[in-house]
Amino acid sequence: MSTFTIFLILIVVVAFLLVVVVMVQNPKGGGLSSSFGGGGTQQLGGVKKTTDFLDKSTWTLATLLLVLILLSNVAINRSSETVDSKALDPDATTTQPLPEALPNTQDAAPATSTEEATDAPAENE
User: Fold this and answer.
1) Distance CA 6, CA 13 (A)
2) In the chain, where does DSSP find H-type helix?
3) 47 vs 58: CA distance, rounded Å
């Protein structure tokens, strides 16, 4: 397994976790942070601490995702060969195959004859 593949798997996992953390948050206070409050008297961890945790985890996962993406660029396998565009190379010649000959269309009857159109009387005389 190459280093790039490991980075790619890590990027997918971190992106999935980031989506989950963002979806759990609710800006109106009705998300996971409000479900930890027990009727106003009992609080498991507290609403403020849950909101802080979700906020910090969002920023941490976003930063980690950005760093993994930048590091994966370093891990891409690059061969020693240079592959340049043939459009930029003035010495490169490209050959295109010739199109196949069209079938003979003279056997088909024409839809209108040109003689009929010229024999018609002119209306402006």
Assistant:
1) 11
2) 3-24, 32-35, 47-75, 114-119
3) 17
Calpha distance 13→65 (Å, rounded): 9
Summarised one tens digit per residue, pLDDT across range 76-103 is: 877 666 656 666 666 666 677 777 777 7
Its pTM stands at: 0.50
Alpha-carbon distance values, 54 to 45, 57, 95, 118 (Å): 12, 5, 60, 85
Q: How far apart are CA 125 and CA 123, in angstroms?
A: 6
Contact assessment for residue 21 and residue 57, using Cβ atoms and an 8 Å cutoff: yes
Question: Which residue shows structure tokens 């024999």?
Answer: 119
38 beta partners: 42
